[in-house]
């Protein structure tokens, strides 16, 4: 018997990167079950098209669209969000989830190589920055929204052989934590999900790892993993709980969801002069005023180049 799910996201529109398979696909399914429409952007074209078709067939109406998207390019990110405007009238939710973890994860002691060494940071880190910026523009124009970035437990912890992957996911965590004031600027929230290891194609022991005989190959089967359904639960919590912003939610094995707190909270305030608190409050007020103007300008420029929002 299929479980009844409340349509808590009825008429909402979600953009999902890396949604052709794995965690992205599972989140797309959960959002659709709650009444949302989804636009999936991924480089895996055949899987992405099949996924969208399957969702539409099951729903009996057009609630999913696939568009080939390489998240490393602004051009593709913009086309992805414009597609959501065109197909479903705007964007309320963005799940910026595309990522890689192949040989580019462990580069520290390999030969210097511009292409390989920049790859993890580019796909896992810079792409989230690009996706967030485009999402904010679309959501601000619509009056609000929520972005969830996929980091990793390796965004708050690390292992010797995940050096570049960890660096890229720490970047996602730092970027996400910086958005404490965004709701005051434009009513958009930004959070990150940090899954423990999950059984997806990503870690289904990469051929490249086996070929290189990397040390992770034997370790991965022994790691206690989180379930994909619990990752979905974490993402839904970050989307639906209006109080959550600039948060990083760890999804651990045994169904544990836990906030990943910074090691030293509010480090900028440590050892400050007595009038620092007042100065900090003023800085926050000034930031909101400054950012509203900056966003207004960016929206005008964006509309000049890409046309009016729907
Ligand atoms: N599986 C895990 O153990 C685990 C743990 C923590 C975090 N994560 C993160 O979860 C996210 C989803 O991974 P997954 O486990 O579902 O693996 P996956 O490989 O099944 O999914 C990743 C998706 O991202 C897509 N992608 C890769 N590069 C892209 C690009 N340049 N442009 C657009 N799409 C691109 C892939 O085609 C794929 O569909 C990733 O960001 C990953 O780093 C995974």
Automatic annotation (TrEMBL):
Domain of life: Eukaryota
Record-linked Pfam families: adh_short
Keywords carried by this UniProt record: Oxidoreductase
A cellular component annotation (GO) from this entry: cytoplasm
Presence of keyword Cell inner membrane: no
Alphabetical list of InterPro entries matching this protein: NAD(P)-bd_dom_sf (IPR036291), SDR_fam (IPR002347)
Annotated SUPFAM superfamilies: NAD(P)-binding Rossmann-fold domains
One Gene Ontology MF term: oxidoreductase activity, acting on the CH-OH group of donors, NAD or NADP as acceptor
Gene3D superfamilies: NAD(P)-binding Rossmann-like Domain
Protein family (similarity comment): Belongs to the short-chain dehydrogenases/reductases (SDR) family.
PANTHER family, per the entry: 15-HYDROXYPROSTAGLANDIN DEHYDROGENASE [NAD(+)]
Name assigned to this protein: Uncharacterized protein
Species name: Phascolomyces articulosus
């Amino acid at each position: 018997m299929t479980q009844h799910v409340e349509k808590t996201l009825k008429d909402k529109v979600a953009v999902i990167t890396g949604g052709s398979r794995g965690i992205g696909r599972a989140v797309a399914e959960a959002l659709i079950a709650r009444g949302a429409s989804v636009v999936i952007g991924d480089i895996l074209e055949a899987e992405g098209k099949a996924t969208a078709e399957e969702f539409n067939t099951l729903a009996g109406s057009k609630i999913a669209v696939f568009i080939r998207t390489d998240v490393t390019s602004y051009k593709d990110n913009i086309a992805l969000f414009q597609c959501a405007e065109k197909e479903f009238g705007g964007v309320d939710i963005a799940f910026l989830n595309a990522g890689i973890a192949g040989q580019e994860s462990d580069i520290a002691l390999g030969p210097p190589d511009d292409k390989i060494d920049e790859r993890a940071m580019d796909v896992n880190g810079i792409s989230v920055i690009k996706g967030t910026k485009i999402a904010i523009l679309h959501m601000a124009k619509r009056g609000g929204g929520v972005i969830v970035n996929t980091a990793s437990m390796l965004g708050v912890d690390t292992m010797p052989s995940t050096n570049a992957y960890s660096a890229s996911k720490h970047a996602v965590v730092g970027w996400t934590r910086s958005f404490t004031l965004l709701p005051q600027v434009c009513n958009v929230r930004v959070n990150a999900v940090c899954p423990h290891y999950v059984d997806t194609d990503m870690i289904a022991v990469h051929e490249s790892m086996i070929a290189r005989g990397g040390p992770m190959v034997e370790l991965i089967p022994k790691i206690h993993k989180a379930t994909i359904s619990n990752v979905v639960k974490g993402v839904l919590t970050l989307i639906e709980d209006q109080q959550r912003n600039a948060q990083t939610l760890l999804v651990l094995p045994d169904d544990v969801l836990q906030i990943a707190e910074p090691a030293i909270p509010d480090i900028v305030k440590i050892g400050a002069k007595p009038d620092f608190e007042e100065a900090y409050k003023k800085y926050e007020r000034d930031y909101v005023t400054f950012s509203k103007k900056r966003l207004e300008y960016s929206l005008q420029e964006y509309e000049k180049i890409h046309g009016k929002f729907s």
